[in-house]
Amino acid sequence: MSRIDFEPLGRRVACGDEATVFEAARDSGVPLASFCGGKGTCGKCKIRIISGEASPLSEREKGKLSSEEIEQGYRLACLTKAGADIKVEIPQESLVVSPQLQLAGKEKGVRIDPVVKAYEVAPSPPTLEGARSDEKALRDYLADEHGLIDLDIDISVQRQLPGILRESGWQSQIGVRGREIVMIANPGVSALGLAVDLGTTKIATYLADLATGRVLAARGMINSQIAYGEDVISRIYSAMENGEEPVRQAAIRDLDRMIDELCSEAGCSRENIVEAAVAGNTAMHHLFLGLPVKQLALAPYVPAVSGAIDVKARDLGISIAPGAYIYLLPNIAGFVGADHVAMLLATGIFATDKTVLGMDIGTNTEITLACGGELRSCSCASGPAFEGAHIKDGMRAAAGAIERIEIKDSSIKYKTINNEPPVGLCGSGVLDAIAELRKAEIIDERGRLREGGKEYILVPAEESGSVKDITLTEKDISEVLLAKAAIYAGMNILLSEAGIDWDAIDEVIIAGAFGNYMDLANALEIGLLPEIALERFSQVGNAAGMGARLCLISREQRALASETANRVKYYELANHPNYGRLFAQAIGFPAH
Ligand code: FES
């Protein structure tokens, strides 16, 4: 067993003899970047050995690191073992910090009608003449005063009941969920709810007052499961290889940390949280519940469970009110999950009588077309290019990431997140770079650099925070072309199945973090979005988080979520007869 000091974090962690530096970081929650989950293929987990001796440099590292990097002591954490105590530096581009998270979403008003209802209770205390049990006293009171009979009482409530009734002078409140008492508390304590958007990359959480629907605090963080694979497929494979539980626990720990932060901001206790609603894609949903995920990776890619689920929080190891339930929104298909259902709810697409296309662009881009009262959806394997992955100088949307680029009078202007020195490109920066280079005719229609060479320098080393050129390569351009071709083909298939063309589209709603930050005109320039009037597009932010919040505070929205998931007609693109042709047609940029 050796020790690793991670700088600049000042974290010291233990490392087993056979563990890599990456595994030691992952197991201790050190935020080290990775797109491949520690397989030695993405090259994103760079560290620099400051002192101490690590395992010798491997051939694979030599292939991923430049000679200057090797000279300066850079290594790949997932291919390096600490033979003895070592001190390493995590350079800024390898550090997953200050992520720019999309917490806000377009607000939609609904009638507040949460699944847990609070009732004041004042049962009479027992006397020698009338020595009823506390439970009986409560039941009698509920029947007489509220007409509630034959309720189940969660065991945690049974345990707390005698103490709270006496402590509160026989004036308490209970929370009833359906036919079950799930909470008992002193009077005046607000019953709170937690809404969670459980994303592959990010987790967004919202703490809300169930009586008013008001959001008291919101938090977001990078999903620590990233250490087990950047995208859904690699995470599923990691769960298949190493078991689902370590992957599941990573998200549970994140949630636990966020609940602490939310409660300290709102000045409340975990015990006040009596209900939670979670929206995630199908793989995240399954991993969260400990359901098997293997069948999601194998044709015909079906979920183990598609209906909405209610499960006791304590059964998942989540510590909120002991009797609280967690509700998970329903899934549509293996790759169109509950987060998409949440988005359809939040945007109103599920009920529109217009012709609307809604999409959430990510590693998988889920698209739904509402047309003539019918809902059709598909999922496009668009890859992680728009999240900055598989891009040579790509990175997540964190401090120092270039998020905007403009070419004016032959000079490149850029803007970074938090105005830090540039260290890489996040998704919107990649999109802008390609669109601007395309407008300047530096990239041709097929995605090649006209001036020759395999890469274009966007920021020279002297200006960059990583002291290396920040470039866009032809391979980066082709990653984006593949992503946009997949999305474009998916949209076209839904349109052709509905028998309409682009002119019929009244509105295109784009949800999610990348969709919110991307420059629409540039998305049109590269052909990611159809050539229709800009006014017909709307960017709505974190609609999945909004949908989870709606389901937290409204029983009607839960019913609509189930109805919507059942109504959607899902198209599997992998075996659609037109997919290959449409995909091939969409590779390349629109002509000028
Ligand atoms: Fe180490 Fe990808 S190369 S995590």
UniProtKB/TrEMBL annotation:
Coiled coil: none
InterPro entries per UniProt: 2Fe-2S_ferredoxin-like_sf, 2Fe-2S_ferredoxin-type, ATPase_NBD, Beta-grasp_dom_sf, Corrinoid_activation_enz, Raco-like_middle, Raco-like_middle_sf, RACo_C
Gene3D superfamilies in the record: 3.10.20.30, 3.10.20.880, Domain of unknown function (DUF4445)
Residue span(s) of domain 2Fe-2S ferredoxin-type: 2-94
Domain of life according to the entry: Bacteria
Pfam families (UniProt xref): Fer2, RACo_C_ter, RACo_linker, Raco_middle
Molecular-function GO term, any one: iron-sulfur cluster binding
The protein's name: 2Fe-2S ferredoxin-type domain-containing protein
Species this protein is from: Candidatus Solincola sediminis
